[in-house]
Amino acid sequence: MKTNFRQWGKPLLWLHLFVCCIWLYLFRTHNPNPPGWTVHIAVWSILAIQFTWGFTIGLLVGPSRARREMLKWSLLTAFLPLWFVFWLSFGLSLYIGPFIGMLYFLTFVMILTCETVCGILLGARAYAMSDQETPMKPSGDTPAGPVE
Amino acid sequence: MADKSERDGRKIKRAMRNWSIGLLLLHLFFVIACNMSQGRLHAPVWAGAVAVFCSLMIQFTWSMTVALMLGPNRRYRRRYGLTLLLIYIPMWLVRLMVLIVAHFFGLWQGLLVLFVCLLVLAAETIGGIFVGLGLRQCLGADD
Fold first, then answer.
1. Which segment of B36-45, B57-66, B96-105 scores lowest on mean pLDDT?
2. In this complex, how many residue pairs, one in chain A and one in chain B, have their CB atoms less than 8 Å apart?
3. In this predicted structure, what is the pLDDT of residue A69?
4. Which residues contact B134 (CB under 8 A, 6 or more apart)?
5. What distance lies between CA A6 and its chain's CA centroid?
6. How far, in Å, CA of A141 to CA of A115, rounded?
7. Which residue among B56, B109, B122 sits closest to A107, beta carbon to beta carbon?
């Protein structure tokens, strides 16, 4: 049985907006003890948001070559994990040395890149697997997008 | 003309062999360092540092090595199971993290961390395979 994955696009966008709002709250708040669930979401998003956001973008853009430039949007949320990774690497470079700090920074950037690429691949695959009928463009090379 | 292509082929083969042997030796060193340090309290500091570093990225580098050696040939696709050969090294750190999180925050949080870590490892594996195939192409092995 095929599933229509494309309808997940909007809820996923809202979910990521919610995560960004939580990060904004944690950056701006003067409360020394923010609610535990916000911290949980922040920690979780450090680990996995690049994957889920890459998946969302892959799902919205699809595998079409014509729209491949739009996949750059998958880097929109990269600042969330990178903020944490930067301070971690900065701390490591202060205590262990700049070379090791840089090495760790590169490793984390590599992990984030892998997450983004895999998210995009899975998202594009989910887009292609959806059973929604899509009208073809006159050129016939790429689907024009989901029918509303 | 034939001489030139033959020379090029030999050069590519030599480059591939050098890369493969270098990467295999590097991973042998990683495995020895990890086995020296993991689960031992009095391990050398350098081995501990290598083990932590390996836990983060060995899945990527090992997948790259396997992809570099096997290539995109469909016949060899089953052998890509070898990319999971060194999974026990990062899983050591993941297991530790999951146990700590499950102890302090509960089983569900621990399972969530396990799931996210497995996802990251899978992403590293796939990314490593792509990079390995790209490197192989750069070396000219698939032309």
1. B36-45
2. 51
3. 86
4. none
5. 16
6. 29
7. B56
